[in-house]
Amino acid sequence: MRMRVFLVGLIAATAMLVAPPLSAPPLSTAAPAPVLSGLTNAIAGRLALADAVAASKWASGAPIDDPAREQVVLDTVSQLALARNLDPAYVRNVFRDQIEASKTVQRGLFAQWRLPGQTAPPATPDLGPVRAAINEFNVAIVDELADSRDVVATLSCPPELAVSSSQSAAAARFDPLHVAALVQAGASVCAVSTGSS
């Protein structure tokens, strides 16, 4: 819990540092991308699809929770983890956070659409194409976890994750609901033992 609060604070603080002042002159050279930007961009891309999932479930009357689908995702990413010499338990934890973050967005949108004067966007009940896109992001996230294995197991991971998440959220133009979900989605990425308290 303290790690999540720490990450929320870091992302909020770095959001102001990452965005240049309006009067700042253009930089002559591009700044290097944050270390975990590939990972957080993939996580943000997957999370952005929660809007389409929510609209589809709203249209069909389907529940937000889908344990059977969630189990398929967790089993699939476990196999992907093994193929990349990653700890399947670690990858499953990361994807439990992806699933819960997606449901956070869906619940938030459902709550908005229930308000007087609000309506859900038009959507098809068919989740097939959206799930195919989610599956592509799942593979990308596991690939990025494999590429970042030397970072996520170090104490530099939390601040690196905060900076990368802040930039990914800004690039995706996430609102507060999606920013909070993005923090939730990254809660298990940093595989650093914090010890007992």
Automatic annotation (TrEMBL):
GO terms for molecular function: chorismate mutase activity. It comes from Gordonia westfalica. NCBIfam families: CM_mono2, PRK09269.1. It holds the Pfam family CM_2. Residues 1-24 form the signal peptide. Catalyzes the Claisen rearrangement of chorismate to prephenate. Its EC number is 5.4.99.5. InterPro entries: Chorismate_II_sf (IPR036263), Chorismate_mutase-related (IPR051331), Chorismate_mutase_periplasmic (IPR008240), CM_dom_sf (IPR036979), CM_II_prokaryot (IPR002701). Keywords: Isomerase, Signal. SUPFAM superfamilies: Chorismate mutase II. SMART domains: CM_2 (SM00830). Residues 1-110 form the Chorismate mutase domain. This is Chorismate mutase. It catalyses: chorismate = prephenate. The keyword Isomerase applies. It is an enzyme of class 5 (isomerase). Pathway: Metabolic intermediate biosynthesis; prephenate biosynthesis; prephenate from chorismate: step 1/1.
